[in-house]
Amino acid sequence: MTDFFLREVTNEDVRLLWEWRNDSLVRETAFDQEFISWKSHACWFDRKLSSVDCRIWILQDDGFPVGQVRYDRGGEIAELTYSVSKEFRGRGLGTVLLQMSTPLACKELDVAILVAFVKQGNLPSMRALKRSGFERMKVINRNNEQCWKFQKSCESCNQIFTS
Ligand SMILES: CC(C)(COP(=O)(O)OP(=O)(O)OC[C@H]1O[C@@H](n2cnc3c(N)ncnc32)[C@H](O)[C@@H]1OP(=O)(O)O)[C@@H](O)C(=O)NCCC(=O)NCCS
Fold first, then answer.
1. CATH architecture of 4-158
2. pLDDT digits over 91-122, tens only?
3. Cα of 150 from ligand 1 centre, angstroms
4. 95 in ligand 1 pocket by Cβ < 6 Å?
5. Ligand 1 in reach of 118 Cβ (< 6 A)
6. According to the model, what pLDDT value does residue 157 have?
7. Ligand 1: does its nearest atom lie under 6 Å from the Cβ of 112?
8. What is the DSSP string of the chain?
9. Which residue lies with its CA nearest to atom 9 of ligand 1?
10. What is the position in ligand 1's atom list of the atom closest to the CA of 128?
């Protein structure tokens, strides 16, 4: 039986996250598509780990790290970004990652709303968000890219998830 566990990121994950951030699909779906150098990643990672406005969790599947989700708080809102390791995509893990982490993010960051911005065409992400209770709000322009804003209220985070 599959055993999922969400754990907080630690300093030891710095390299794993660098590899995941530079995965080709992750760069393609991000708003800044440039390769991320080790030096810039290491500084960014230190900053994120010490920030009170940020939480990063790693999804473990039978003890193995398979994906990550990050929430950045700005006021009452936290913006999320997430990815699943390439060998594990398409097995429902992105959805598990969102469903397990959203209540935690609401609680730990004490925000009212979670948002995600998804480039048009990123179907797997849109479907995972929808299945996890996010609502598709509107198309906006970000870094000269058209993307969908998805939103979920923290009040709804304890609902049972269905299709
Ligand atoms: C987005 C991402 C995290 C989704 O993770 P995943 O584990 O592959 O997603 P799931 O297996 O939970 O699938 C989610 C939905 O997308 C569908 N899906 C999966 N792969 C698909 C594909 N290639 N084309 C269309 N739909 C797809 C699944 O059928 C599922 O929909 P359903 O529940 O309605 O059947 C993963 O694709 C990824 O890491 N992408 C690169 C980074 C990224 O895009 N991050 C999000 C930025 S907003």
1. 3-Layer(aba) Sandwich (3.40)
2. 999 999 999 999 999 999 999 999 999 999 99
3. 15
4. yes
5. yes
6. 82
7. no
8. ---EEEEE--GGGHHHHHHHHTSHHHHHHSSS-SPPPHHHHHHHHHHHHH-TTEEEEEEEETTEEEEEEEEEEETTEEEEEEEE-GGGTTSSHHHHHHHHHHHHHHHHHT-SEEEEEEETT-HHHHHHHHHTT-EEEEEEEETTEEEEEEEEEGGGGGSPP--
9. 94
10. 14
pLDDT band at 162 (very low <50, low <70, confident <90, very high): very low
161 lines ligand 1 (CB under 6 A): no
Check whether 160 has a pLDDT greater than 80: no
For the segment 41-67, what is each residue's pLDDT rounded down to a tens digit?
Answer: 999 999 999 999 999 999 999 999 999
Q: What is the pLDDT, as a whole number, of residue 57? A: 98
**8 Cα–ligand 1 center, Å:** 22
Model confidence, pTM: 0.95
CA 124 to ligand 1: nearest atom:
16
